[in-house]
Amino acid sequence: ISDSTGAYSLFLVPYNNYSANLIPPSGEGVLNTTISSLDVSVDTDLNLILDSTLTLSGTVFDSNGIPASGIHVVPNNGSLGGVTDSSGQYSIGVASGTYSLTVKKESYNSTNIDAPYEFWITPLVSGVSVTSNTTLDLQLPAFVELSGFTTDSNGVAVGNVRVEIPNRNFTGYRSEGLAISDSTGAYSLFLVPYNN
To answer: Does the global pTM surpass 0.85?
Structure first.
């Protein structure tokens, strides 16, 4: 661990292709950084430069323009990304670069929009260039609703039926639906459109 002046020292077996993972304390304005192809074949003085934090932020909207809460926005840099707040806003610390963004809703996150129980869209957008703090609003695709009634073979309503549409993976998407029918047998759930 480097000291308060940034000085560090460590001992290694001589090798010409090390990688260094730099993990700063939070709040320093720099990101976890990996530096590859380090030649440490002999005693070496090397200043290691951490990537500066830039902010990628915006609002996630559903297909009707409603800000969507509880949606993960994840860049393709290995970061956990961020989750939208009650206003649909997200903010992610990233290094300068070009990113693809995945959006997902995990089953444990609630949202204010009509959305599948769980979904992933990989990527929602590609080629996002970040060279300074960047604002990028995102729009989710239209989801489809599956609704009806759960009944016995005589058409009598059966309530409290768990209706599950198992996890479906298809190119760039993953979707899972879940609903519990009410006392009249009525249920409703949302899915990513898929025809197979």
So the answer is: no
What's the pLDDT tens digit per position in 24-71?
Answer: 887 787 888 889 999 999 999 999 998 888 999 999 999 999 999 999
Q: How far apart are CA 55 and CA 32, in angstroms?
A: 14
Q: Tell how strand 33-40 and strand 118-130 pair up.
A: unpaired
DSSP code at position 112? S
Q: Cα–Cα distance between 56 and 101 in angstroms, integer?
A: 11
Residues 6+ apart with CB under 8 A from 5: none
How far is Cα 96 from Cα 143, in angstroms, rounded to an integer?
A: 33
Backbone angles phi, psi at 138, to 5 degrees: -125, 145
Q: How many residues does the chain have?
A: 196
Q: Residue 112: name the closest of 62, 176, 170 by CA.
A: 62
Q: Is 4 exposed, middle or buried (0-12, 13-18, 19+ CB in 10 A)?
A: exposed
Tokens of 22: 């730099």
Q: Which of 92, 64, 94 is closest to 77 using CA atoms? A: 94
Q: In the beta sheet, which residues pair with residue 179?
A: 163
Tokens of 42: 């002999």
For residue 9, the one-letter residue type is S
| Residues 6 or more apart whose Cβ sits within 8 Å of residue 18 | 12, 38, 39, 40
